[in-house]
UniProtKB/TrEMBL annotation:
Composition-biased stretches (Basic and acidic residues): 58-72
Protein name: Uncharacterized protein
Region described as Disordered: spans on this chain: 52-72
Protein origin, superkingdom: Bacteria
Length: 72
């Protein structure tokens, strides 16, 4: 899963939880993070990074989404 899709999935999952008061993006060097505030006032800051092994995913090409039925 590419980083942009993962971030969107993460945002959707947090937004669906009743204990989350807000989700805000913040900028840090080389990436965007999320500040997740819970209804009890606690805030956590998250950052996600993407890595691939040498010869791994070519991010210059469109992402090929694989579903369970494709794997066998």
């Amino acid at each position: 899963m590419r980083l942009d899709r993962f971030r969107e999935l993460l945002r959707e999952q947090f937004a669906a939880h009743p204990g989350i008061a807000s989700i805000e993006e913040y900028q840090v060097p080389s990436t965007t993070g999320f500040a997740v505030r819970f209804s009890d006032g606690v805030t956590i800051r998250l950052r996600a990074f993407a890595t691939a092994p040498p010869g791994g995913d070519d991010t210059s090409k469109p992402e090929k989404i694989v579903v369970k039925s494709d794997v066998g």
